[in-house]
Amino acid sequence: MRDHVFEPRDDDADRGAHGMFDDQAKSRDAWSWASMHRAALAGVAVAAVAAVIPRAMRRG
Fold first, then answer.
1. What are the alphabetically sorted keywords of the record (predicted)?
2. How many angstroms separate the Cα of 24 from the Cα of each of 18, 27, 44?
3. Sequence-ordered alpha helix ranges (H) in 1-60
4. Is this structure's pTM higher than 0.90?
5. Does residue 50 contact residue 43 with C-beta atoms inside 8 Å?
6. Sign of torsion, CA 46 52 57 60?
7. pLDDT digit string (tens) for 1-59?
8. What is the distance between the alpha carbons of residues 55 and 29, in angstroms, rounded to a whole number?
């Protein structure tokens, strides 16, 4: 039996990873996007907090 971890098992073409869940697969999702853009999301969160704090200080 050939090892197919580093080389495709089929000699004629590499068909990639496909199976019975192909019709349910999504090309994008919010969780992956957020995971790859953590720095930008952190910057937005800091800016939002910085905008809210002065308003809260004026009220109290």
1. Membrane, Transmembrane, Transmembrane helix
2. 11, 10, 32
3. 30-36, 38-59
4. no
5. no
6. negative
7. 556 677 777 667 766 777 888 888 888 899 999 999 999 999 999 999 999 999 888 88
8. 35
